[in-house]
Amino acid sequence: MQHTIILSLSLAAFWLANSGHNTALMLSLGAISITIVVYIAHRMDVVDHEAQPLHLTLKIPGYYAWLIKEIIVANLLVVKHIWLGNKSISPGFTTVTASQKTDIGKVIYANSITLTPGTVTVNLQGDQFMVHALLRESIKNLESGEMDRRVTQLEN
Amino acid sequence: MDTLIQVSSALFLLVGSFLCISGGVGILRFPDLFTRMHAVGVTETLATTMILIGLIIHNPDFMVDIKLIIILLMSFFISPTASHALASAAMRNDRLWESNEKPDSKQVKSSNP
Predict the structure, then answer these.
(1) Residue A66 class from Cβ within 10 Å (0-12 exposed, 13-18 middle, 19+ buried)?
(2) What residues of B are in contact with residue A139 (Cβ under 8 Å)?
(3) Are residues A106 and A149 in the same domain?
(4) Which residues of A touch B21 (CB under 8 A)?
């Protein structure tokens, strides 16, 4: 029930942000389409804690701030090595162990790895992530486990 | 005030364009698919963000700004998913660097001496 209400509210906000029309006809058409979408989402059985991770709401902004900082640092590093050329890179595969319990935590961790340039999650099996990295430095950075620890903190 | 807005927006757009060009150079320079994907990572994260921030500063219309922010958020959710799909497809087809080494152990392997 809680998830349904939040889904309707966020759909309404999204509709208002996109339309910009405030006539009665437009608003009622919007309300009808939101109702249909919520109904279809219920039929598809996707209205749950995975599609609407409400338990993350309070903790996620801090994590995003940290992630954006990491993304900027990683970007500058990759740009530096692009201009330095092929001799300066040391690509390779590595396997990292994820300590997250839930699927959503693992997805956040894998996506964060991919989102930081210089590291890409290639494969995911159980709690083993196969990661391709452009530089040895990024592998070391990943194996220090700070990102893993922060994502695990999100979960609890 | 108007000049300040124009200058700061131009600055963001300039940095974004430089990062886009860097990404392009990386695609041409790097030796194989995975390393090229890292170069694209620059274009799809920081370069996109910089260009969209420049456009948001440049545009005073609130409705347009909201749409630009939505584009930014969407690209942050979609691009890692697409990268992952591309990487695992490449993995299945064995598109590794010339030496074709398989990543099978836990050791960090490097194909560039």
Answers:
(1) middle
(2) 108
(3) yes
(4) none
Whether residue A17 and residue B26 make contact (CB cut-off 8 A), yes or no, is no
CA distances from B72 to A68, A114, B22, B66, B79 (A): 13, 17, 20, 10, 11
The interface pTM score, or ipTM, of the predicted complex is 0.79
Verify that A63 and A89 share a domain, yes or no: yes
Minimal C-alpha gap between A42 and chain B (Å): 23
Range of the domain at A103: 57-155
* Beta carbons of A151 and A105 less than 8 angstroms apart: yes
- Say if A51 falls within a structural domain: no
User: Could you report the per-residue pLDDT of B40-93, keeping only the tens digit for each?
Assistant: 888 888 999 999 999 999 988 888 899 999 999 999 889 888 888 888 888 877
The beta-carbon neighbor of A83 closest among B22, B37, B70 is B22
Give the model's confidence band at B111: pLDDT under 50 very low, under 70 low, under 90 confident, else very high. Answer: very low
Taking an 8 Å cut-off on Cβ atoms, the answer to whether B22 and A82 are in contact is yes
What's the structural domain count of chain A?
2
Out of B37, B91, B112, the one facing A90 most closely (by C-beta) is B112
